[in-house]
Structures are given as C-alpha cells and as structure tokens.
C-alpha cells in the first residue's frame, strides 16, 4: 500500500521518536517547530508539509534532511504522488 508524502513524514517522525527515545515536546523544543504543528503533522491534520518544516524537524533529530529522508517510506514506489 502506498502512502502519501504527508503520511510518510508522519510515520518517519513517529519511527524516529521511538528510536531516539524522545518525546514530541522535546522534538518541538529541539526543532523550533511548535508542538501543535508537530502534533498536527503526526496526526495528519496538515494538508501539505512544507520542506522548510521538514528541514527543521530533521534538525530537531540532529539529522540532515538526507538522513531523515533515507527511509523506504520515501521511495517513489512506496508513495502515492
């Protein structure tokens, strides 16, 4: 089943929160993205994620955007574009 880009971003954030043992609140503080925006992304109530927001979130995980996107979730064959 293919995911939308928004779903893939939400899944990746959730995966990294678990792997790195940090909370949504801590990620919000680390990234500069408000907790409410982060929550909306994770719960997929945002219609379109901006690349600038993804860049901030990657930084909040202390990762590059390339590292954040380095997941099978973002392979073209796994996305509904």
Write the layout of secondary structure elements.
Elements: H1 5-20, H2 24-31, H3 35-42, H4 51-60, H5 65-69
Relevant terms:
single chain; globular; 58% helix; 434 Repressor (Amino-terminal Domain); mainly alpha; 81 residues
Polypeptide structure, described:
The chain is mostly helical and 81 residues long. The chain has one domain: lambda repressor-like DNA-binding domains (434 Repressor (Amino-terminal Domain)), CATH 1.10.260. It is 58% helix and 0% strand. The chain has helices at 5-20, 24-31, 35-42, 51-60, 65-69. Helix 2 crosses helix 4 (51-60). It is globular, with a radius of gyration of 12 Å. It starts with a helix and ends in a 12-residue tail after the last helix.
